[in-house]
């Protein structure tokens, strides 16, 4: 979501505001802000399509693990760099993932690893799932084996999910995350919301609804349209391409 403190920006001497979004995603917000702020330039999504071509380098253990899974079979779980679920929530999430019967890739940071239950997840006895402290998230989302993204709905993750064409189970915590989750679920229709606090049964139901429920195919179709729009934004002549070029041209004139 394009969020700005307009008063503080007006009081500063910035000549441009570059934002990680694209016209097709937030045209109304961009146009509204342009009436009050210096030049607002959409330069997102912040990636190039060709960056995913080398997603299978030898050091990427996640890519190698994903390569062995069928298309759209994996549940990918990541909650960003700040969200820290409680021990109880981690236990419910762990049991919920196992109960889906689907392969899952779960990013659990080192500072939350001790919150995992002392079972097959921590000891990696359960070969159905893989727990890692970090991954190249955009590359994981772009992998054809990923069929669902359980996300905290930070803005970067929101844009990356849309750009990758992956439907979501939203698990927002604070700041802009609940608004982003509402945008994904109610605005774009590309996912469902996990109740807070999460339960294993609720997570299993949400994952199944997104991956195999009656509306799953329609969700994939809608998020696929956003994937195409994101690719068009970064292509030559797209909104991101124009935004970056406008900024470069303006700087060169100084």
CATH homology superfamily of the largest domain: Glycogen Phosphorylase B
Structural class: alpha/beta
Which architecture of the largest domain per CATH?
3-Layer(aba) Sandwich
Shape: elongated
Biggest sheet: strand arrangement: 5-4-3-6-7-8
Helical stretch tally: 11
Measured distance between first and last alpha carbons: 31 Å
Structure description:
The strands form 2 sheets. Strands 5-4-3-6-7-8 form a 6-stranded parallel beta sheet, sandwiched between helices. It has a two-stranded parallel sheet with strand order 1-2. The chain is built from 11 helices and 8 strands. Helix 4 (87-99) packs across helix 9 (200-211) and helix 7 crosses helix 10 (216-234). The radius of gyration is 19 Å and the shape is elongated. The protein has 2 domains: 6-44 and 239-253, no CATH class; 59-214, Rossmann fold. The model has no long low-confidence stretch (mean pLDDT 89). With 254 residues, the protein is an alpha/beta fold. This is UDP-glycosyltransferases domain-containing protein. Keywords: Glycosyltransferase, Transferase. Belongs to the UDP-glycosyltransferase family. InterPro entries: UDP_glucos_trans, UDP_glycos_trans_CS.
Explain briefly what this protein structure is.
With 254 residues, this protein is of the alpha/beta class.
How is the secondary structure organized here?
Elements lengths: L5 H6 L4 E4 L3 H12 L4 E4 L18 H7 L6 E5 L8 H13 L4 E4 L12 H4 L5 E4 L4 H6 L3 E6 L3 H10 L3 E3 L6 H11 L3 E3 L6 H12 L4 H19 L4 H15 L1
Parallel strand pairs: 1-2, 3-4, 3-6, 4-5, 6-7, 7-8
Helix pairs in contact: 4-9, 7-10
InterPro entries: UDP_glucos_trans, UDP_glycos_trans_CS
Family: Belongs to the UDP-glycosyltransferase family.
Keywords: Glycosyltransferase, Transferase
